[in-house]
Amino acid sequence: MLFNSLSFLLFFPAVTLIYYLIPAKYRWIWLLAASYFFYMCWNASYALLIAASTVVTYLSGILIARADRNGDAARAARRKKLWVALSFVINLAILGFFKYFSFAVDNLNAVLGALKLSLVSPAFDVVLPVGISFYTFQALSYTVDVYRGSVKPEKNPFRYALFVSFFPQLVAGPIERTGNLLDQLNHPRKFEYNRMVSGLLVMAWGFFQKMVVADRVAVVVNTVFNDYARYAGFEIAFAVLLFAVQIYCDFAGYSNIAIGAARVMGVDLMENFQQPYFAGSVKEFWRRWHVSLSTWFRDYLYIPLGGSRKGRLRTCLNLMITFLVSGLWHGANWTFVLWGALHGALQIVEGLLKKPREALENAFHIDRTAFSYRFFNGFLTFLLVDFAWIFFRANSLRDAFGIIRNLFSTFNPYVLTNGRLLELGLDRPDLIVGLLAIAVLLIGDLLQTKFKVSQRLMEQNLPFRLTAYTLIVVLLLVFGVYGSGYEASQFIYFQF
Questions:
Q1: Is 330 a catalytic residue?
Q2: Of 62, 115, 180, 295, which has the fewest CB atoms closer than 10 Å, so is most exposed?
Q3: Catalytic residue among 187, 330, 343, 365
């Protein structure tokens, strides 16, 4: 069930209405049933996988807690590590099979083909269950948090099942932490009008990002990336620029709809995007982009590997491992691995150049608070991040290098004014709407950071608020793109 579908527009109000009508002590049961129904709308058999992950991590939490009751501290420590290891092995084995089996077979066949040996032909196809990477990581974080003593194990398996399957953030995050989400689900809030309106406004912004911006610019992106040999120079650059917009609006749009929907039901989810394209370095970009995943890898992979505590060489190695794993998490394709490696390399270079750059800036009395300094750093960071997106979007490594080759093969700025851009899938009105929507996006991000627009809107008089709310809905209905044949367009991160 897609957020931008008619079925969700019927499902969500019905779930919310019943949620607030039934007694508070039974609300978690209703949410659990609604969450499993929501997930099973894609494929009913997917519920078996999320249930398996839930059972394994729930039992690991119980067994870790019981190990602490053992009087022998050394023996208890060994048992706790055993339960954590089993939880990770089982969950990652499930994730690895469904997400990477076909990838492994393809690469094995590539090697066998090069050696002139018989190829492997599996007797079955493996379909990637939607959202498996997200709920697997969320469930595994529970195991680690219980092991570390950060949270107490949840004794009720069905309440814990709701934590893993809570439908707003189930299939594409944010990847929540036990200490934040589980306690809120166990202690539901009373209905609050302002909270509901605030949540709906966040959802509306998410729908704008997805339906007005992301799905519109996707037409140009798909046209160029899927047939890149026909295009060169500024045509490629335009599509690469628009993909940066698309991936941000598509994923941030989903996150905002999820955050807003949860807020309507009295649950606060973590902020997943913090104006990432305003970052002044690649390191800062990752503090602003997909925050829930970035902090997950920081807390559960980078720091356990040693973080930055074991010298410069080990820090560089830990960074590269973390970003290679992050790239592979995003997809079973070498394009994602190389994308992760690029970001790891960029952060390593930034770290190595930090002190020399600061010494140079001090020598020339560079004002780091000046707008020109911040603008230059932000512009350079965006160019680097945008270039790396080529590997993320390309269908293969061969396509990625072909796109880069065509990007620099021709200097043709005249295509920006001769109408050539209108041959990339969008007619003039749609292209104008798309560019204006991007401007609104940038202004909205700036205003929300400095002035908290949604909060200011809620403080206005009722007639003004009602007019603004009506205008928002009308604009979404008029300028929203509903996909091919007016069907809901799937969110990009559902494939991860």
A1: yes
A2: 115
A3: 330
